[in-house]
Amino acid sequence: MSSAGKPAADVVDIEQAKRNAAVARARVQTTVGALKERVSPGNIVAGAKERVREKTDAIGSAAQRRPVAAGTVAGVAGLILFRKPVKRVLKRLFVRSEKSKARKLARQERKAVKRANRDAARAPEAVRTPPDDLIPHASVTNDAAPAKQE
């Protein structure tokens, strides 16, 4: 027995447990320090910049090898990214509003009237029809004539 009244084996176990705890504590502190280093904002930004730079270099070399494919991909990506503004522009160019449809219809009617007037002016005199007030039967009604009684 030891002087404290405990068996010697227990003291050895306690000392071993203290050493194990100190080693584990040192390991945890090292791990926490490494994690703090990895998650610091400056290191995250630097890592992201490096990955973007690597991807950009890879894309640039691929674009130099196949420029048509790269242009097609860039065009499609641009259309996807800017689909709403492109849609608005195309809609203004190719889709007619109700107001513009009405203007187009009025323009077509004016052209038709001009064409009819031009054609009437070119027609020979015999073919032209006189205005309604010159036609005798158009202004006379049957109500004015007296009725015959038999």
Briefly, what is this?
The chain has 150 residues and is mainly alpha-helical.
| Shape designation | rod-shaped
- Estimate the helix proportion, in percent: over 70%
The sequence of SSEs as H and E is HHHHHH
Total beta strand runs: 0
Write the layout of secondary structure elements.
Elements: H1 8-38, H2 41-65, H3 67-81, H4 83-94, H5 98-122, H6 136-139
Write up what this structure looks like:
It is a single chain. The chain has 150 residues and is mainly α. Helix content is 75%, strand content 0%. It is rod-shaped.
Features:
6 helices; rod-shaped; mainly alpha
